[in-house]
Amino acid sequence: MPEALKLDFGSFAAPTRGVLVLFCGEGVKFGPATAKALSSASGLLARAAKAERFTGKSGSSLDIAAPEGLRVDRLVVLGIGKGTGLAQKDFVRVGGMAMGKIPASATNATIFAELPGGPMRADQAADLAQGVRLRAYAFDRYKTKRKEDEQRPQRRRLVVATRDAAAARTAFAAREAVAAGVVLARDLVNEPANVLYPEEFARRAQALRKVGVAVEVLDPRALKKLGMNALLGVGQGSTRESRVVVMRWNGARKGEAPVAFIGKGVCFDTGGISIKPASGMEDMKGDMAGAACVAGLLYALAARKARVNAVGIVGLVENMPDGNAQRPGDIVKSMSGQTIEIINTDAEGRLVLGDVIWYAAQRFKPKFMIDLATLTGAIIVALGHEYAGMFANNDQLAERLTKAGEATGEAVWRMPLGPEYDKLIDSKFADMKNTGGSRWGGAITAAQFIKRFVDDKIPWAHLDIAGTGFDSRQTDTNRSWGSGWGVRLLDRLVADYYERRGA
């Protein structure tokens, strides 16, 4: 984060400075600790609520500067409606809402982790703090001048007041690790392509060694030796060399099969010879959001000492149109031995994934494989920016991903696979072509292409995150162009099904 936000937990005591954020239910009802802290300002609050017609409705807020009777600079009251039946993701969202009401210039703030019915549990207070951490993120490192309302102090201190600060602090440790993984992913997606190119992405991935991740970087010579010609073909028009990075976290028994995550890492995508329109091309710096998620996830798993063996592999390329670039009509031989006719050089992500998925399956023989890619505009046409498209060869894995999405708010929607779509990528000259040749079902034919590189004995899911990985909808926990989408989803999948149960 640009500013150093020190986040800690404390007791329910009225602060003597900064911003105080409180929660109330319908009818402006407070919990006992909150009511006690407000006792000297209850009259002022009642008058302000009446004047602003504030009733505590969910999502509403009341903001009072220099409140009489309190020693704080500002009082913010957030309405949460009935305040009952809240799920984990709701506490994360509430934390984001609270952080969003604290002025950027504030150096001190306190949030009371109490509902109208009483104090939040330690885990709920920790979830709230994770929402604070996620909402506090801003990517403005390249701004040399800021507007007055964008000025941020060098250091900020925020205290989450709770009934048991020690227990909340313990519960927050794992959540903070996951939030840090999200922040890492956001940073990678937000970086411009002249700063973050394949070699630089690989260099940053090596920093994960600090938390215990083993990192291996494969250069073009190694990739050529492996036969990753589909991946190398995408990057051959760029002066930036391609890379594949293998990240391994071993938190379970030695020799136990890992879970595997594969990310598309096109650090910039011009479309190659099949060049994209100029309008909006600047967004293609985010075409590596899948790889960013994988890096953030491996950081999160290692930082919270997840009891799982996990491997993350990212294919890093730049798709540029120079005299050495791949042409439409070219035929390449993939690592699997299958040949591919290039119909459109802008359908490049699936070429990268095909080689890396094959490599992951052959080398690691994982329990499952999940790939993430900002792959097709077609999935945005189908699902907008609310859901990522999910394609899977295994019903259990698909169901688990769906439940993890519901729990975290990073939702997925299962899309079909079938032989009828598979026929659309048959080629007259090679084993397959890299597009279906029409506008229809583009996300599905892309998934069918990737499936040809999957060992059907291994459960596999493909997540098309074109609508969620960058330039996605703004939420209470994300105001960043690069969302870091997928880190919390996949961490939850691992935590719920592949750690405690050892499935």
Topology:
Blueprint: E1 4-10, E2 19-24, H1 32-37, H2 42-51, E3 61-65, E4 74-79, H3 88-100, E5 108-112, E6 114-115, E7 118-119, H4 122-135, E8 155-161, H5 165-190, H6 198-205, E9 214-218, H7 220-226, H8 229-235, E10 243-250, E11 259-269, H9 289-303, E12 309-319, E13 331-333, E14 339-341, H10 349-364, E15 369-373, H11 377-383, E16 388-392, H12 395-408, E17 412-414, H13 419-422, E18 432-433, H14 442-451, E19 460-464, H15 487-499
Parallel strand pairs: 1-8, 2-4, 2-5, 5-8, 11-12, 11-15, 14-18, 15-19, 16-17
Antiparallel strand pairs: 3-4, 6-7, 9-10, 10-12, 13-14, 16-19
Written overview of the protein:
By secondary structure, the protein is an alpha/beta fold. The chain folds into two domains: 4-176, Leucine Aminopeptidase, subunit E, domain 1; 196-387 and 427-436 and 452-499, Aminopeptidase (3-Layer(aba) Sandwich), CATH 3.40.630. It is 34% helix and 20% strand. The strands form four sheets. An eight-stranded mixed sheet has the order 9-10-12-11-15-19-16-17, sandwiched between helices. Strands 1-8-5-2-4-3 form a six-stranded mixed sheet, with helices on both faces. A three-stranded mixed sheet has the order 13-14-18, covered by helices on one side. The two termini are 36 Å apart. The mean pLDDT is 96.
